[in-house]
Amino acid sequence: MIGGETVMSQEIGQPVVEMKNIVKRFGTVEALRGVDFTVEKGKVHALIGDNGAGKSTLIKVLTGVHTPSSGEIYFEGKKVTISSPADARALGIETCYQDLALIPLMSIWRNFFLGREIYTNLGPVKWLHRQEMQRLCCDALSDIGIEIRSARDKVGKMSGGERQSIAIGRAIYFGAKLLILDEPTSALSVAETRKVLNYIENAKAQGLPVILITHNVSHIYLVSDYYTIIRQGCKVGTYQKGELTQEDIADLITGTREA
Amino acid sequence: MRKKNIYSAILRYFANSPIAGPLLTFVLVFIIFLIFVPNFASWRTISGIITAVSISGFVTMGITILMIAGEFDLSVAPMIAMSGYLFGTISTGADSVIVNTLLKIGLPVEGGNPGLAIFAALLVPSIMGSINGLLLVFTKIPSFIVTLGTRQIFRGVVWIVAGGVLFQTIEKLPIYEVFNGRFDMVNKLSFLEGANFRTAMFWMVGAAILFEFILVRTRFGNHIFAVGGGEGAANAQGVRVNRTRVMAFILNGFLAGMAGIISFSQFRSVRVAEQAGIELTAIAASVVGGALMTGGYGSVWGAIIGILIINMLRSGVILLKVPFISADNFPAVVGVTIIAAVIINNYLRNRSTS
């Protein structure tokens, strides 16, 4: 079974995360100057900005890597303090960083269950259920449309898109309440990008809200329900799908056009 | 047709396994010696190689586990010496710094206490291992530097504990026979002419099976690979990276302690500089055995095959009687082997992982 609760249709549109007036200073540098950011259930929300605009800082505040200088975070309606990546994870926030998601020298199933292995306690020894994990891993991935040859293949053998898909599949399987993907398509071919976008669609169909962090609008334009654009530590605005063209977004990112 | 499928399945299994490279090197070296060295496949040679491997094998396993976790340890030799002194003096109850100190605090070591000897000889090196691990974790100094330092410090501590003198005994305690006695029951069999097997090989094979299970089939083993293969990813998945590292150092210390017991049981002597230089042989054997210096890859069986290759080379090259390559000049051959083996290992690993 896929972990986590099924999201009722009436819940879609309820906010999962609300970040209010987030300020983050590094010494005298103000990386975030009072940013509001809300993600709703069952929606894909793109967070767009140029390099150094503050999108990574905002996400790191949400995932507990940075503590905000001021501002409030609400998760599922409750005010929370996220002071470490472990806190974020305990809330159900899963982040797939570009390079940090998987271990190339380990097999697919070992990556899939890393840190959440299924085991029996034999005294001090935690004996792994290898067959069961291999089977569950294959099933879980095939549920979201990812077919693998063998769960025992090394992740290093897989393409960038396949690796992303495993990280996404893992987040869904373990009942994440919010999935954050950092530049999920930046290193991928066109065909691979299309596949990853499909997996994101599948994640969304299962009710999982997704934040896509990117500076490349063209890839994520079709899959996103909302776009929030950040420039120089300030939010330019949040727009619904279809409200802006790709050119509009590009102009807003670079500041060629004011909101 | 069907037969071919079975062959290709076996081939695929080995090509994807971390012991593929070491096994290939082993077979190559063995065949070369079989052709060029008369009587290489004699029981005397084979049992000699296995006996030599029984001591260094423990160290190689420990170093391999550390290398999989992305670390290594240059301070193994003083751990072996410490274990040897503790085991030797406590098992005999001989007049020594260790025994006199233990008597003072009221421990029953008068006349020898083999049980306590084993306990101390395994516990103290494990603690030394944990010191390495904790220093590494808290100072964030790379393990090369940390253990380069503790190697000297530990040797100093061993010197103090040993009173600066060699310890030897002529007593033939049954416990020595258990750990590394002559295996005469087998050696006397008529078809094993010239064989000189010792009981230590069973301890080593037992340890290899145990640690292979730990690495491949337990959560802790899984985390060792994860920490070495991608610290950031392991941390992000909630693996307790530092704890896993310290545990790997403790296991390495424990295995060094085993090596000390086995070594003392065979020679019934131990000196402060016992096994000096073994860490480099063990690192070489681990690398020949397929472990990656950068972490995340390797196997216990690879380690055993690696140390077998190095000891087989030693025996084989000496028997070959090549001019300029005597027993003393043997490290040159190890150098060639390390590089050749790593080329083979890299080729096979890249085929299965990228």
3D architecture notes:
- The complex is a heterodimer of chains A (259) and B (354).
- Chain A is of the alpha/beta class.
- In chain A, 30% of the residues lie in helices and 29% in strands.
- Chain A contains eight helices and twelve strands.
- Chain A is globular, with a radius of gyration of 19 Å.
- The model of chain A is unreliable at 1-10 (pLDDT under 50).
- The model of chain B has no long low-confidence stretch (mean pLDDT 90).
- In chain B, 72% of the residues lie in helices and 1% in strands.
- The radius of gyration of chain B is 21 Å and the shape is globular.
- Chain B has a single domain (17-353), classed as Orthogonal Bundle (ABC transporter involved in vitamin B12 uptake, BtuC), CATH 1.10.3470.
- In chain B, helix 3 packs antiparallel against helix 13 (241-267).
- The interface between A and B is medium-sized, with 28 and 25 residues.
Describe what is shown at a glance.
The complex is a heterodimer of chains A (259) and B (354). With 259 residues, chain A is an alpha/beta fold.
Shape of chain A: globular
Quickly give the structural class of chain B. mainly alpha
Q: Residue share in helices of chain B?
A: over 70%
| Largest pleated sheet of chain B | 2 strands, antiparallel
**How many H/I helical runs of chain B?**
16
Arithmetic mean pLDDT of chain B: 90
- Give the second-level CATH assignment, the architecture of chain B: Orthogonal Bundle
Contiguous uncertain segments of 5+ residues of chain B: none
**Strand arrangement, largest sheet of chain B?**
1-2
Tell me the count of domains of chain B.
1
Number of strands of chain B: 2
What's the story with the biggest beta sheet of chain A? 6 strands, mixed
The rounded distance between the terminal residues' Cα atoms of chain A is 45 Å
User: Nearest-angstrom radius of gyration of chain A?
Assistant: 19 Å
User: Which word captures the global form of chain B?
Assistant: globular
State the helix count of chain A: 8
In the CATH hierarchy, the third-tier topology of chain B is known as ABC transporter involved in vitamin B12 uptake, BtuC
Work out the helicity level of chain A.
25-40%
